[in-house]
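Let's study today's protein:

:::
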Amino acid sequence: MSTLHTVNKSPFATGALVSCLDHCKDGDAILMIEDGVYGGLTGTTVADRVQQKAGSVAIFVLSPDADARGLATDRLLAGVNGVDYDGFVDLVADHDRTQAWL
C-alpha cells in the first residue's frame, strides 16, 4: 500500500520534511505544498536528504505554490517535479492513503 505524504511547512521552520523523509517507504510519494515547496530547492541544508530519497520515492512540489513564492522551476532538485492542482488530485487518487506532515 502506497502513501502520498504532504508537507506544508518550510524545512527551515520545522522538522516535518525530515521526519517525512525518514518514514517514507519505497513506492510512496511526497508532495511539498505551501511553504513546504522550499524543501525541493537546490543549495539548501536539506537538499542532499531530499535528493537521496528521490531514487525510491516520487517527489513533487505544487507548482502554483512555488510560483506564488517566486521560485523558478530551474531551482528544483533533480528528481523533484512540479505538478498543478490536477496533478495533486491524480496523486491522491493514485495512492492508497494520504498522510499530512504538519
Summary: The first strand starts at residue 3 and ends at 7. Residues 3-101 form a domain with the Hypothetical Protein Ychn; Chain: A, fold (CATH 3.40.1260.10). The two ends are 22 Å apart (CA to CA).
